[in-house]
Amino acid sequence: MLDTVITIVIAALAAIFISLPFFRRARSESTGNPGSALRPDPKMEQLKELNARKESLLSAIKDIEFDYGLGKLSREDYEDLNTRYKIEAAEVLKKMDEIAQGRPEAPVEDELEKEIKEARMRGYSVYEDDEEIEKEILMAREASWDRESEERKCPECGSAYDSGDVFCSKCGYKLDGDTKKQHAESV
Amino acid sequence: MLKGKLKFVVAIVVIALAVSYLVYGGVKDTMVYYLTVKELHNRVPEVYDQKVRVSGTVVPGTIKHGHDGLLEFQLTDGAGTMDVAYNGIVPDIFKDDVEAVVEGVYTPASVFQADTLLAKCPTKYESTDDLYKQQNYEQGKAF
Amino acid sequence: MAETGQISIFLAFIVSIYVAFAAVYGARTYKRDFVRSAENGALAIFFLLLVAVLSLVYSLVNLDFSLKYVALNTSTDLPFIYRITSLWAGQAGSLLLWSFILSIYFALVVLQTRNKARGLMPYVIATLAVISIFFTFIIAFVENPFQKLPVVPQEGRGLNPILQNAYMAIHPVTLYLGYVGVSVPFAFGMGAMLSGKLGDEWIKYSRKWTLFAWTFLSVGLILGARWAYLELGWGGYWAWDPVENAAFMPWLAGTAFVHSVMIQEKKGMLKKWNMSLIIITFFLAIFGTFITRSGVISSVHSFAQSDIGPMFLGFIAFILLFSFGMFLYRIKDLESENRFDSILSRESAFIFNNLLFLGAAFAVFLGTIFPIMSEAVTGHKILVGSPYFNKVNVPIALVLIFLMGVGPLISWRKASKENLIKNFMAPVLVGIATAAVLIAIGIRDVYALASYSLCAFVAMTVFTEFFRGVRVRSRRGENPLMAFGRLVSRNKRRYGGYIVHIGVVLIVIGITSSSVFVTEQQATLSKGESVELRDYRFTYEGIDTYNTPAKDATVATLAAYKGGKPIGFMKPEKNVYKYEGNREINQETEVALRSTFKNDLYLILMNRGPNGSATFRIIINPMVSWIWAGGVVLLIGAIVTMWPGGRREREDVFVRYTVGEKDSTVKV
Fold first, then answer.
1. Which residues contact A128 (CB under 8 A, 6 or more apart)?
2. Per-residue DSSP letter, C147
3. Does residue C138 sit in the same domain as residue C228?
4. What pLDDT shows up at residue C611?
5. Which of B23, B74, C194, C616 is the most buried (most CB within 10 A)?
6. Omega of the bond prior to C387 within 30 degrees of 0, cis?
């Protein structure tokens, strides 16, 4: 008897747990939040892929700097590889910015170089994890994003929207090209 | 650029050929026929002095341990029987009715000189018959 | 309890089917709730199988002989701990364990990637679910651990004495963690092909799982070897037995994969190769499970014939056809991003490494299935034994050891002459010097010389790497110890990998010494007589018996001397376990073993003769303990490579910051 009860309880728990997401969705649908859609934002996907590529490149740069410092790489080989990686990284960053902001940016190689130099000048040795470099870049980025997202407001209801949105998620106002252009120019 | 690629292809082919050669040579040198007792008898006399493996079950009552570590027993496959002589480490599983595999040479004296002896748990491993044999002895044995 | 367990297994089967469909449906229609539900389903499968496992353990511990599995594998005199480990002693129990471990991996993968890689994950989940469907089907309908007996016996058959041993208690679990673990990177690969996300994502996310599975395969193999050495009592640790090979093949392919993914990560190359390789590795893991479980290749190990053989074959065929089908479908998207530049480069060292590992795997595979193939083709069963495997694998291994030294030091893309000289001069000299010294002290065996010299070469390359790294850091003011610690922790994969290589070197040295320089002698002695081997002497002092509740033991005592000086007593045993007729095996030989770094003294009591005489086999096995020590070092290195380092976590945080992801369910 006890066996049967336990079995039923276990089966029930499993069934409830598995169907939970369907109830959560019903709840959130009634509050009008379409956030449970899985449809991938193609821009987001691209950015993620590019970011992964950028990470690999940063890691490769770090590796060859390390090898060079250890004397495993000749100066020639190091410079050669370093330049290749940097160029590719700059291109990736450029593409990322284009997608994120919807417009081509100013030449990014300088920006990247600047960020790396700044990180180094702060006394971070070449042999540190590139986390320091990352942090610098991150902070620089954050600063500019914060600035921008503050300004990105729907002209109809005033709530914030994402750069990838076509309609305001609160009031449904169509965020046309003009609104966005205005915003871009003001930053 | 193309020359570099060619070097690569050559290297890959060399490796593949080398491995194939090792495999071929290895197989040729070490291949051993795996026979049943009956098949062995059928191949007499060519099989004399040829290294083979024979499998069968140990005939109950035929196991004899000599003093110097010499082991003698008879192996059968149901159709034929064979005398085996072996001197070496005997697997713990080895006893009457067990499936055994011997590797060695069958001599014209009709004795199989084995240099390797392997024994396997009998195929009826999952049989539950012997579980019930004990019932008679161990009645009343409380768990 | 048993009913609960049985029904849980059945429910796990049903839920697995649901998860597969829900994950794919949710992915294709972009309905997040279906995918979420599938994720919860994976967790539910774990929960259900946990219930099943606990239920079976409960029945085993309480000796519920009404269950066939309990009756066949336990007995009233079985110690408590072995009642638990008998969970994996038989066919049904070990298949339940396989399914359970799969569900653990499944659940962890789901939890770890809960809000990441949304395009990829549903298909990964679906793949794992399909594997789960197969295994739960088998334990639900074919080999049910909860099968009842029509009449309850009074006593169980008992656990094979060889399995009542600490190593045998954990060896299957570690091996399964390895075998089953290979499913995870495979699922990621399949997920990549099914979702179309054929970049580095699948490799990035599966990396830690691959390392984890590989580690356990390695540990499982070494524990198995140690168990064989201690318990099977023939003086060796590896016999190229089909079941041993079954675990070795996925290890070979897995090692190749662990290396080749590094090339894809760094250079974007070898995409097609990596995808095929993980399919092959998984195939070999399932094939290995199949060989072990179905008894299709006769082996002293395989412990049951049953109907599951054809089912495994069917599953294997399905996997191969489906995976390679998807592979061909996606082949255009798997183009490399870079070209190879030179044959003297790290890329090519890695490629040769891969080719050799696969060559070895192929050779072992061929040798293992040779009897079946030859019977199918010629009607006669033909075997290839140990000598074949050694003949083929030793040369391959030597070249691989060489590459192990070359790989880390050679540059990417194209090694210049100055790079080669600068980096390799010292290690090559060390290698040559080693060979010279060994020849001078009388060693002439070519393989031994090659092996030791190459090991010295590799050891020197690793030492150089550590030395240079520490030196550079200490120049900046860190003391060497700190420098070492920081060096390793900042480059875990690289230096962890080096530590693993050192472990391998130790293992190779151990294997070489114990294979080439082993000596043995058999002697029948009467009391007081001695036998000498090398600079050891053993004097037979007497033979005795003692009894425990479980066994009647016969123990011989020999006094051991090295170079004339006493070094202790060795007591080999031959035991008879009680309950005769109730067990298939009741005899057990206990080897007397004395290990030092230089030699293992290995004594076997073969039999007892008349008048108190006894026959012994004495084996002196040089440097066997290096193998086990090497295994420990390998494990340490592997743990270092897997240690969480914060890099990946930062990456994801970074993405969220930069991209401004506003998903409300994200936890940063």
1. C490
2. P
3. no
4. 83
5. C616
6. no
Judged against a pLDDT cut of 70, whether residue A106 lies above it is answered with no
Q: CB of C617 within 8 A of CB of B71? A: no
The type of residue at C390 is N
Q: What is the pLDDT of residues C189-200, one digit of tens each?
A: 999 999 988 888
Give A67's contacts in chain C (Cβ within 8 Å): 411
Alpha helices in A104-158 (DSSP H): 108-121, 131-151
Report pTM.
0.83
Q: Is residue C560 part of a domain?
A: yes
C268 pLDDT band (50/70/90 cuts)? confident
pLDDT of residue C38 exceeding 50, the answer is: yes
Q: Is residue C523 part of a domain?
A: yes
Residues C210 and C127 in one domain: no
Q: Cβ distance C139 to B123 under 8 Å?
A: no
Q: Report chain A residues whose CB lies below 8 A from the CB of C204.
A: 52
Q: Which two tokens stand for residue C352?
A: 């040769």
For residues C176 and C286, state if they share a domain: yes
C8 and C155 in a common domain: yes
Domain-terminating residue out of C622, C637, C655: C622
A126 pLDDT higher than 50: no
The mean pLDDT value for B14-40 works out to 89
Q: Does residue C512 contact residue C503 with C-beta atoms inside 8 Å? A: no
User: Using an 8 Å Cβ cutoff, are A109 and A90 in contact?
Assistant: yes
Contact pairs from chain A to chain C, CB under 8 Å: 157
Q: Which residues lie closer than 8 Å to A12 by C-beta, 6 or more apart?
A: none
The domain tally of chain C equals: 3
Per-residue pLDDT, averaged over A54-64, amounts to 76
Q: Which of A55, A75, A101 is best to mutate for the C interface (most C CBs within 10 A)? A: A55
Instruction: Report d(CA A89, CA A108) in Å as an integer.
Output: 10
* Phi and psi torsions of A161, nearest 5°: -130, 160
The CATH code that applies to domain B32-125 is 2.40.50.140
B137 phi and psi angles, rounded to 5 deg: -75, -45
Burial of C418 (0-12, 13-18, 19+ CB in 10 A): exposed
The per-residue pLDDT of chain C, averaged, comes to 87
Question: Exposed e or buried b for every residue in B89-102, given b needs 16+ CB within 10 A?
Answer: bbbbbbbeebbbbb
Give the span between the Cα atoms of B109 and B45, in whole angstroms.
11
User: Which residue range forms the structural domain that includes residue C37?
Assistant: 1-159
Q: How far is B137 from chain C (nearest CA, A)?
A: 10
From C299's Cα to the closest Cα of chain A, the distance in A is 40
pLDDT band at C95 (very low <50, low <70, confident <90, very high): very high
Question: Is the bond into B45 cis (omega within 30 degrees of 0)?
Answer: yes
Of all residues in chain A, the percent with pLDDT exceeding 70 is 49
Q: B105: how many CB neighbours lie within 10 A of its CB?
A: 15
CB atoms within 10 A of CB A43: 15
Alpha-carbon distance A142 to nearest alpha carbon in chain C (angstroms): 7
How many Cβ atoms sit within 10 Å of the Cβ of residue C18? 18
C-alpha closest to that of A121 among A113, C658, A129:
A113
Predicted confidence (pLDDT) per residue in C390-434, tens digit:
999 999 999 999 999 998 888 777 777 777 888 889 999 999 999
Residue A34 has what pLDDT? 42
Asked whether the beta carbons of C375 and C381 are under 8 A apart, the reply is yes
